[in-house]
Every structure is written in C-alpha cells, then in structure tokens.
Amino acid sequence: MAKAINKAPRAWQRMLSGRRLDLLDPSPLDIEIEDIAHGLARVARWNGQTHGRHAYSVAEHCVLVEFLTIQMEPNLDRQWRLAALLHDAPEYVIGDMISPFKAALGLDYKAFEARLSAAIHMRFSIPVDIPEKIEKLIKRADKASAFFEATQLAGFDHEEAAKFFGRPKGLSKTGFVDLKPLSAEDASILFMKRFEALR
After folding, report:
1. Could you report the per-residue pLDDT of 174-189, keeping only the tens digit for each?
2. Which of 17, 71, 121, 184 is most open to solvent, judged by the fewest CB atoms within 10 Å of its CB?
C-alpha cells in the first residue's frame, strides 16, 4: 500500500490581480497597489467595534496617518509620506490585529510582518530601513490617529484615550479631523488617490 505523501500546506494567497503572494517569502514582484487598496479597504480597525454605517477601514486609517505626518512635519519628503501611507500595508494580507493580540503572538508574528513590509517597501522604492526619526514621526501620527479614532468612533472618552494613546501634539487646527467611516469602495478609491498623488 502506497504511503500518503505529506504535502506542505499552501502558503500563498491569490490576489484579485491574479498575483500569488507567497506569505513565507513574499516577493515585491507579486505586490500590486490595487490589491493593497482593495484589501485594506475591507479590513476593519478596532475589530469592527466602531460607530457608523460602515466599518472604519485600515485604508482610511492609513490616509489619516499620512495626513497627520504632514501636519507634524510640513516639509516631509514624498518618499516618507508614502512610507506613512503604507505603514500598515501588510494588513491587506494578515488583517488588523489589535496590539494586545500581536503582543500575545510574540516575535514570530513581528518577523512575519517585517518580511511582508520589507517586500512592500521594495516594490514601491521605499528604503526597507526607515530612519529612526521618520519611524518616530509615523508612530506619533499613528498614535494621534488612534486617539481620534478611539474618541470619535470606538467609544473611548478623552481621558481613557489619552491614557492609552496620548493626546495628539504638534498639530495645527487643520490637523484635527472629523472622522466618518466610508464604504469599502470609497475607502479603496480614497487610498488610491493618495497613493497616486505621492508617486
């Protein structure tokens, strides 16, 4: 009797563009911005626990973070603005896991996310190793975004949000935003418009 051959589990995902992205060894050649926009527009921030007719998507969050980096650093180079827009791009494949869950998963998850992020950066001509100053700026904008999202959409009061995310600093009056969750289609279009403006 022939022994069953143990097949390795499938480790690639087929994208709507037709690309097959190897999740264990992602190639920049298999990454398309339309797939990223489509996926991020359908991934809900806060595990979907937000007010509104639509979920608040990672695509919208990424656009907000890029906007806030400009408020904090008006002369920011275009490639770093693109890095801000794509800061959560790996989530088009792996979804948006809340920070406590990422911490529980540990280093393997972070290494996986880092490999995918590196491939995305290579695909769009962004340095894989971002300068620490830029990393900190994007992180500040990310936390400011989380504060606005938490207080406007996710049911946090200002004091609670400030405890977890800090109060946004270094923003002009135009840096304060009024968030309205979009449909997935509109969020995808918004993300693509920002990408095209930065290319």
Report:
1. 556 899 999 999 999 9
2. 17
